[in-house]
Amino acid sequence: MPHVVVLTGAGISAESGISTFRDNNGLWASHRLEDVATPEAWERDPEGVLAFYNERRREVRRAQPNAAHEALARLEQHNCRVSIVTQNIDDLHERAGSRDVLHLHGDIGKARSSVDPRLLYRLRGEETIEIGHMCDHNYQLRPHVVWFGEQVLLYDTACHIMADADWVLVIGTSLSVMPAAALLDEAPAHVTRMVIDPDAVALARGTDAIPMAGKASEIVPELVEHFIAHRVFEQPARGQ
């Protein structure tokens, strides 16, 4: 069964109304990265950091998967294995129905121990994280997100997934955040790569990737329907 690996970034979630840190409006407009998304910010002002991520979590809960999320979930039903490696901390892929999703930068719907990142807790309903909420070892809980300056804990797993790809779709990411941007180098040289983004032509320049310029919510459903209609995954992958 052909293996399609999809690398998604903020652009796909932005189409569902979720703010990105490059936005000129929304949640990030009134906050500096240094004040809410670094270990140093957590040390200085944990209450302020928790308040910011509690509001981000509310924003995610209000958002709904868009047509791109839904199309990727639908692709799983058509003779291929689909693995999604996302830089996003929302759960829109899962809510759309995707079953194999790896969150490189964490999951805002979970809390974790501030001392042991292996201690994870799913936040239910409108639940928030507050000062005094403790893990099982009696340490303060924090958002399960990777802040700037922290190690990406699942990067090795993502590399193994990419190394097994027969097709690679890059959706809604500028490929400017490391180490996620280096993941494409882990894919076998022969595989077909497609870049789907309003700036796809520029992003694909100097590579052998196929640029598909436009919104993810418009391009991805069309691409998936093309794959299904032409039984693309019943044919050998390029180079096999």
UniProtKB/TrEMBL annotation:
Entry's localization field: Cytoplasm
GO cellular component: cytoplasm
Presence of keyword NAD: yes
Ranges for domain Deacetylase sirtuin-type: 1-230
Any Pfam family matching the protein: SIR2
Top EC class, one word: transferase
E.C. number(s) listed in UniProt: 2.3.1.286
Binding site for NAD(+): 9-28, 87-90, 172-174, 216
Record's keyword terms, sorted: Cytoplasm, NAD, Transferase
Keyword set includes Transferase: yes
Domain description: 2 residues (Tyr-53 and Arg-56) present in a large hydrophobic pocket are probably involved in substrate specificity. They are important for desuccinylation activity, but dispensable for deacetylation activity.
UniProt function note: NAD-dependent lysine deacetylase and desuccinylase that specifically removes acetyl and succinyl groups on target proteins. Modulates the activities of several proteins which are inactive in their acylated form.
Protein name per the record: NAD-dependent protein deacylase
Name of encoding gene: cobB
